[in-house]
Input
Amino acid sequence: MQSKIVEEVSKRSRKVIDPAAFISGKSLAKIQRNLSQADLRINSIHYATLALVASAFAGATSLLAGLYFISEPAYAVALAILCFAAAFLALLKYPEARKKSRASEIERELSIALRTIAVELRCNTPFEKTLRNLAKSKYPLLAAEAKRILSEIELGGKTPPEALKEFSDRVDSLIVRRAVVQLVFSYEHGLQTEGIKKLADELVNLQKIRSQQYASQMAFLGLMFIAVSCIIPALFAAYVIVGSSFLDSSFTNVDILLAFVIVFPLVDIALLAYMRMQAPKILVVA
Output
């Protein structure tokens, strides 16, 4: 339903805005690959058109706000161009960020799912039944992919190795490709599970290392957040007070209001968002 809405908006918007004038064919191909690996079933042309429309709206809104709050029209135009460029770049980068997040989520779920698969195969469970059990598991992304793999095998006439290979192509992850190689090897060589279990142990150890690295980063980022949220605004306030009394300060009341109401909170939000993005996706650490 969402893809149909995007497609309809794109068709209407392309009569006014042509994404090919802003984005090269190579970039569109990369966007299409990112959309596919992010599990966003949208055509790259339609997505680029929607990004242009949304960015133009953001630019127009910022232009109107700039003309209202800023006396200089040149500054308002510069703000509008900056907002348009920032919004357009963010929207173009969104599929890439989402595909990385999706890959991390699948890697997290694999650490335990591979152990379960190894145990079931070692108990001589048929390979297709193991996939069905995975499709019924509590791991949302892996369960959805397992259902898709089973559908390709049962309805699409593909062999398990072919369906697993397409699954690895849909995820931008070296770990997923290694897992698929081990699963295909197990399927083709009599349900051998040593490689699957070893890879599962490696994933658990990798999660532990990522958790330790994130904990060390938090010490520095915590100090930076204190500086950005408390120290810098206090120094700015002191500078404004001193500057208005002893120096030729050019800050107006609107400038000071915008700094404390918009600029400093946005910097805090950006830093918190960065800290959240850096958090490793961990299911279990052994």
Notes: The mean pLDDT is 83. The first helix runs from residue 2 to 13. The chain is about 80% helix and 0% strand.
